[in-house]
């Protein structure tokens, strides 16, 4: 006796529309919530090299401060005087008092004084977690 298998018509008409809707919603969610890090790195700065440099990972609420070859300080791509920088950093620390971080990107041709001035402002405003970025390069032996 032969057994007959009846195919259900429901399985053959599976609608993909809800699946496509979910995929598009996920895509929109990730696009809206992603942080565009390149916006704060618009300046053409040549970073100094260091053998122990590691790739920079974005941390939440991190402030990027740039110092170009002439010693001009930039915050969010805009030229900023040191007094204004201190005022803006104090405002950011007031909004995020526990874990405010700062990344100082200084051109290798700049003098050391503007970098030290930015570090001093970070210390005065309560940002103790700051770093100076470098790029990985060959080890210079004396």
Automatic annotation (TrEMBL):
The chain crosses the membrane at residues 12-32. Pfam families: ExbD. Keywords: Cell membrane, Membrane, Protein transport, Transmembrane, Transmembrane helix, Transport. GO terms for cellular component: plasma membrane. It comes from the Bacteria. The keyword Lipoprotein does not apply. It is found in: Cell membrane. GO terms for molecular function: transmembrane transporter activity. GO terms for biological process: protein transport. Gene3D superfamilies: 3.30.420.270. The keyword Ligase does not apply. It is a single-pass membrane protein; Single-pass type II membrane protein. Belongs to the ExbD/TolR family. This is Biopolymer transporter ExbD. It comes from Roseiconus nitratireducens.
